[in-house]
Amino acid sequence: MFFYNNIDIQFSAGGCKFHAVNLISSEINHDIPMHSHGINCYEIHFISEGYGTINANGTEYPVTPDTLFVTGPLTEHAQFTDPACPMKEWCIYLRADSNENEKYDDIILKFLSEKFWIGQDVQGLLPLFQRLFSELNNRFAGYRNMAGLLISEIIVGIVRNYISASEPIGEIFGCTSERTSIIIEEYFLYEYRSATLEELSKRLGLGIRQTQRMIEKYYGSSFSEKKNQARMSAAQLMLSDTSLNLSDISERLGYSSQEYFNTAFKKHFNISPGRFRKNKIKKL
User: Scanning 16, 66, 94, 96, which has the fewest C-beta atoms within 10 Å of its C-beta?
Assistant: First the structure.
């Protein structure tokens, strides 16, 4: 596994400045709950091995070797790996310094405009990912410059995949700090059980009101709503594990009682967790 967190590889492509903030090469051995990224943030996923599914905006898609998918701003998505043949993923988290006054070339405009895309890679991108992580791992002379060039090539290859496929869908959004965005997203993704507005504000180095406004501006929801969304997404995954009873799940999610969890789940999904589990089992 290679994980480069907050490395901030800066490069320009087609008139737009990008920041590659997180880069990961890893086998996925656990499901990743539903989450989304901030304004002008993009996550590139390339699956070189294994199988699974992703859920993006409520639709499930199969994942096989050479699947490429890109999740753009505010796209809710989750990943489910096949335990018998887990996915190996190459992932790049990018922020674009988008400026309405700048003129970008057609390739970059196409990349920025896609909110979500999935398909089979027909551009042979794997060697570029391998070279990118080799540069980062070995830190050859000028590795940051080379990494920026390789990511630029990957972006061009992605857009060529878009063009060769049919009916891509997209939206263009504004801009936010890459570090702030990552802190917020990872906080809700991994610490939904005990998340508090006060603790998140401390991590961001902001006041409570500033943090509230930032979440509302970039995610369109309040802190409590985003925490509840994270808990409910995790609850769906846990309910698929029949070794966990409802009391276990309630405790893992940070609810004070099973009754409180039942009420919250039914309010969110309009179905009780017990009935949701039974329906899930019937579909298997």
Answer: 66
